[in-house]
Amino acid sequence: MEDMNTPSLRQLPTLFLQAALMATATILALVLVTKYVAPIPLSVSQTSTEKSSAFSATGHSTVSTIPDKVEITLGVSLKENDIQRAQSRANEVINKINTDLQNLGVSKDNIKTQNYSIYPNYDYQTGGQRLIGYSVDISIVVSLTDFEKLNTVVDLATQAGANQVSGIQFTLSEDKERQVKAQAREEAIEDAKQTAQELARLAGMRLGKVVNVVEEPTSSVPVPYLAAESVARGAGGGAPTNIEPGSTNYSYTVTVSYETL
User: Fold this and answer.
1) Across the strands, what pairs with 142?
2) CATH number, domain at 187?
3) What is the pLDDT of residue 219?
4) Considering the entire predicted model, what is its pTM?
């Protein structure tokens, strides 16, 4: 007996035709929806790479300026057979120097003791170790911002008995160094920018934004001119001291890097 739910052989072509028509209608509907309504969203994994390059140029600047601060070392070195006499003479010289400098208008805060040493002297020529006396060395450091007093300071010290004048260092105060540094930095960066623009133009390149800056500050310390007469002054010479500060150069080197377009 034939099952009522099972299609007969005569019905098979009709069923196949209906299935084909339904499939065709479905495909046509998808095409119409995609074309006239909205595309069907598809999930796509995408990886993008970004090419990055940099163009660098170096700029230089040098700012010449006059130092506004100086430090000078003044001292006395004495030898005596008796240690107390050596100390007494050396202290007398240093105290006289301190008093004269303060009378000149140098603040006590700008006068500091750098060295105070006492050591024995021996004679080894007799084949043994024979004590023959003592040496006392005392030195002070004087800081000045008024350079008109510098030469007078040296003269007063040598007149008081100082036999050591050394360590004359001209420098920049913190405020002035900050100002000079800012000026040198600005000029170096401007020089680097102009160099970069010129090189890029010649090479047919387009520059983007600045991506990095590297700076290298350098400064030269002036060497003071101490006249030969000034050196002789400490040894009994009569010529006035003449120390000139000269000028100091503060230099900057800056490398500026751009991204290229």
Assistant:
1) 72, 111
2) 3.30.110.170
3) 63
4) 0.60
